Amino acid sequence: MAKTIPMIITNNDILVKDKESDEFKSFSMPSLNPSPNIPFYHEFAEKIAEDQYYFKEFMKKLYGKKLNKYILAIIVPDDTSKLESIFINEFFVNSGACKAVAQLPMALALSKTQSRYISVSKSSRNVILEYVRNNETVVKKLYDIHTCDPKKVMSDAKVIHIDVEYNSVPVFVNNFNMNMDEYVDMGRMITPKEFMQKISAVDVEKI
């Protein structure tokens, strides 16, 4: 049976759980020149074969040479587009560093005990407000990171869905990237440590 390797695509790099230490180790390409408001991994498209090679070598150091028995459980930012999602899957599955890949947006990893909740997060380009029900995103709203008014996000959160208007629904503020100070009073703050603990136990069968 294939084993799972938790992996997180952050705003700046890629974090992979180390087999030995259970800590997350960072993978990044030093030659990248990311553009404003564009996820850094878009740069991988310019030198796909080279970047895939370096990623595979990185994975060998963490998991040895027999990488084809592992599945990468890739946690992606909440504003990842369908096209970006396809690129991410293709890049990693064709790197030779795994048997297969599975993807999960950050918002869906915040709680496995709450059947309904609101998630607020911030990527390198957007603030993302989501209503999650039964492990699925029901409603998602994106706000430009440069013009977003936190008061507007907080107001929208109260009426994002009829479930929220007539029921008490918890709000989780995803502070994984340490950039959510303006939303500290909006709900329960999820720290980077807590988020990585949740990801460490991610189940590929439920992605």
Could you describe the 3D structure shown?
The strands form 2 sheets. A 5-stranded mixed beta sheet has the order 3-2-1-4-5, with helices on both faces. Strands 8-7-6-9-10 form a 5-stranded mixed beta sheet. By secondary structure, the chain is α/β, with parallel strands linked by helices. It contains 5 helices and 10 strands.
Question: What key attributes describe this structure?
Answer:
five-stranded mixed sheet; 207 residues; alpha/beta; single chain; 10 strands
Break the fold down into its secondary structure elements and pairings.
Layout: E1 3-9, E2 14-17, E3 24-27, H1 48-63, E4 70-76, H2 82-93, E5 100-105, E6 116-122, E7 126-133, E8 136-144, H3 150-157, H4 162-166, E9 171-174, E10 188-190, H5 192-200
Parallel strand pairs: 1-4, 4-5, 6-9, 9-10
Antiparallel strand pairs: 1-2, 2-3, 6-7, 7-8
